[in-house]
Automatic annotation (TrEMBL):
<protein>
    <recommendedName>
        <fullName>DNA-directed RNA polymerase I subunit RPA49</fullName>
    </recommendedName>
</protein>
<keyword id="KW-0732">Signal</keyword>
<keyword id="KW-0240">DNA-directed RNA polymerase</keyword>
<dbReference type="GO" id="GO:0006351">
    <property type="term" value="P:DNA-templated transcription"/>
</dbReference>
<keyword id="KW-0804">Transcription</keyword>
<dbReference type="GO" id="GO:0005730">
    <property type="term" value="C:nucleolus"/>
</dbReference>
<dbReference type="GO" id="GO:0000428">
    <property type="term" value="C:DNA-directed RNA polymerase complex"/>
</dbReference>
<feature type="signal peptide">
    <location>
        <begin position="1"/>
        <end position="18"/>
    </location>
</feature>
<comment type="similarity">
    <text>Belongs to the eukaryotic RPA49/POLR1E RNA polymerase subunit family.</text>
</comment>
<keyword id="KW-0539">Nucleus</keyword>
<dbReference type="InterPro" id="IPR009668">
    <property type="entry name" value="RNA_pol-assoc_fac_A49-like"/>
</dbReference>
<dbReference type="GO" id="GO:0003677">
    <property type="term" value="F:DNA binding"/>
</dbReference>
<dbReference type="Pfam" id="PF06870">
    <property type="entry name" value="RNA_pol_I_A49"/>
</dbReference>
Amino acid sequence: MRLMKGIVLMMWCRYLPAVYDPSTKTLHVHPSTPLYLFAHRVKRLRTAPVSAPPAQAAKAQWRQERNDLGEAFGTRKAKAQIKSEERNKVNADAMQDAKGHLMETIGELQKEEEVTAPSDIIPTPNLETSDPSEVYPREAVIPNQEWSSIDVSQMLHTEDDKERIGYLPSRRSFWVQNKCRSVYNIKDKAAKKTQMKYLYYLSCLLQFLDFAPRLSKTAAAELTSKFPGVPQQILDGLITRFSEQSGRKHAVTEKTKAKLLSWICLLYLTLDGYSVEVGRIAKDLKMEPAKVATYYKQLGCNVKLATPAEREAQGITLAEAGQMRRAVMVAPVKFPKTKRRGPAQH
């Protein structure tokens, strides 16, 4: 009964405004006032026209009036100019039919641009293979004529490591020296000979890299004496691919040096089973690891850190793992997207 009574009282409740006076400590209750709706108007717009003509339409009308005056009173040159403008004016209505076709074409072109092409400073890759060892065929790295000119018979028959290393054109690389010992211990004779020829060619590239700053100062007739023991076919190929002609001499430019380093990094990768430690290669080339990592990314390699499980198994920290990043060739090969700079801000 009490619940029903409370509900009835609530149905008859009303909210009223009240004002409290602190000085007299009294509360004045006022009956509810009616609700008024106001419309906001700007006085300055009362005299403005309801709709103003668009600026583009006014400009077109002015141009038409100017052309009419030109045709009536203008010179021959002015009249010819007016007729030329009329012929070249784009008809917007006629372009509506072609709009859809143009938009479809633009969409297709954008989709094609999403496919990233390989850099022009690397050998021509095989984009279809799923075998990492076939991404860069030997012919794309070392032409047949140069490959045939490499003779490693003395290196294969010599048992003394120091004497074997002495047959290499460049003997400053500790990586090459250690690899020369391990290649000699390969049991398969065919694989052993192939790896030794790759190693010899890498040594030729390293010698050419060391000589690059002096190439532009050396006459063509003296080049053979600067590369003792290097077959002429290989020397000619190196000069053709990794330098630019300047008069009667050649010079290694910034671009051709980047191309040379790409070839060198690829041969390190090939000789190490398509997985190399970036830090070791950078140390051998006396370069920053980040720069070497960039070359391997351009070749299509994945440059990654060791996983937490691998770091735990090897007993190394994250900082140490950063110095031991590996570049691994993957297939089918994918290349990094080229970063495009936006327009200059003025």
